[in-house]
Design goal:
- Helices cover 26% and strands 34% of the residues.
- The radius of gyration is 20 Å and the shape is elongated.
- The chain has 3 domains: 91 residues, Periplasmic binding protein-like II (D-Maltodextrin-Binding Protein, domain 2, 3-Layer(aba) Sandwich); 72 residues, Periplasmic binding protein-like II (D-Maltodextrin-Binding Protein, domain 2), CATH 3.40.190; 83 residues, 2-Layer Sandwich (Alpha-Beta Plaits).
- The protein is an alpha/beta fold.
- The strands form 3 sheets. Strands 1, 2, 3, 4, 5, 11 and 16 form a 7-stranded mixed β-sheet that branches. Strands 8-7-9-6-10 form a 5-stranded mixed β-sheet.
- Helix 1 links the parallel strand 1 and strand 2.
- The two termini are 22 Å apart.
- The relative contact order is 0.18.
Amino acid sequence: MEVLTLGPTGTYSHRAARAVAADDDVGFRESVTAIAEAVARGAVDRGVVPIENSIEGSVTETLDALADHEVAVVSEIVTPIRHALLAQSDRFEAVASHSQALAQCRGYLEEHHPDARLEAVASTARGVERARNDQSVAGIGHPDNAGEGVSVLAEDIQDRDSNATRFFVVAPPADRDDAGGKSSVVIYPNANYPGLLLEMLEAFADREINLSRVESRPSGDRLGDYLFHIDFEAGLYEERAQEAVDRLEEIAERGWVRQLGSYDTQHVLY
């Protein structure tokens, strides 16, 4: 099975992808959008992309990619995030990492390195690469990325020990499954009136289905126009879940509803 995730080698996405495929079968892209495009056209079997972090919230690029590309969600991986500061020495002027990692370590950086310039790069592993190539730069990444010229200056620098990230395993739409304990849908109502959001929520509340995430994103068509991402705790094989989705389709008669699929959660510890 060929799997794509965010690269280069050593990213947290790479570590999550190892739960899906052997290391030799994992390839890399620099963006979630590129991964979703490859999966949607059937160029690869699976993609592993971050969807939500317990500190910084949802990954907006992933939300937009799920709305813009015909893919299915077939599994969810949850893994703890342990950040370390890596550099050639403690005499650095900048800290490079993914924007989410920089935000997750904001408190540590403000306390211990308030004068360091923060540099957002494509991934945590890319930040460590910058540190290997430039002694004036430190990177934030998993402590296992130490070596080849950089060492761990500090471990567990994330602002909260409970830091964890959810990853979606995405597949071509033909692989969508209705079996699983959780499901995800994207709704574009193409409408705006009082009570619209309430109507969508009532579709689940009336059937005693718990929502684990609700998020709005701009449609990109015009100001004030939104689509909605909803995760709920029921499988699409359940009658109550299908009734809820049918109700969403009635509400979004001028727009669309995309059923991403049902899936189970896998907890991976590193």
